[in-house]
Amino acid sequence: MVMKRDQALHSLARHYADGIVVAVFQSAFDWMKIRPHPLNYLCVGAMGQASSHALGLALGAPGEKVVVLDGDGSLLMNLGSLVTVANMKPDNFFHFVCQNNMYEVNGKFPIPGAESIRFDQMARAAGYRQVFSFDDLAEFDQQIGAILELKGPVFVCMHIEPGEYYPLDYETIHSEQSRTTFRNALTKRLQMS
């Protein structure tokens, strides 16, 4: 069983309506439409860097939750970040991985080890405080609110398949306007806290 990615992200958005989100590739395209928000960090151009960028934000803004919407192929490019995150122990870090076993936006090629890889076990072995894995939307929706209240770092593997199609808006993701909007929103948020 797997969840539709857009349905899982809608559920997350209901429980996390106003906070920092670092999203990459197909998750970013979906998230921009599902939860448009100035604290969406959409400036990750290098594959695999979502967790590293999010770690920097979590350490720099310890009073703010930071949610990462990572892809399985993206995380494979930077598996060492799991150990780095676990070692730094940011209690405001929530790492969601959308596992569909393919490089979706790059041609839908299978990731290495697609049939056997277990990202939740990797995160647990790396030292994340809390680790979860979901393939059922109702269960995910029921537990996500409580998960977001836990002390991080938290890792959530979401076994997903594509849902509703959202356009691949690279222009917005890589725009100067997106960077400026995020920087200004983060500065304002930190000044208020």
Characterize the structure shown.
Strands 1, 2, 3, 4, 5, 8 and 9 form a 7-stranded parallel sheet that branches. A two-stranded antiparallel sheet has the order 6-7. The chain is globular and about 45 Å long. It has a single domain, classed as Rossmann fold (3-Layer(aba) Sandwich). The mean pLDDT is 91. The chain has 9 helices and 9 strands. The protein is 45% helix and 20% strand.
Give structural attributes.
globular, two-stranded antiparallel sheet, single chain, Rossmann fold, alpha/beta, 193 residues
What's the helix and strand layout?
Layout: E1 3-4, H1 5-15, E2 20-23, H2 25-34, E3 40-41, H3 50-60, E4 66-71, H4 72-76, H5 80-88, E5 93-99, E6 102-103, E7 109-110, H6 119-126, E8 130-134, H7 137-147, E9 154-161, H8 170-173, H9 176-192
Helix pairs in contact: 1-2, 1-7
Shape: globular
Strand content: 15-25%
Radius of gyration, taken over Cα atoms and rounded to an integer in Å? 15 Å
Rounded to the nearest angstrom, the distance between the terminal CA atoms is 41 Å
Largest sheet: 7 strands, parallel
Number of strands: 9
The H-and-E topology, N to C, reads as: EHEHEHEHHEEEHEHEHH
Q: Which whole number gives the mean pLDDT?
A: 91
CATH class: Alpha Beta
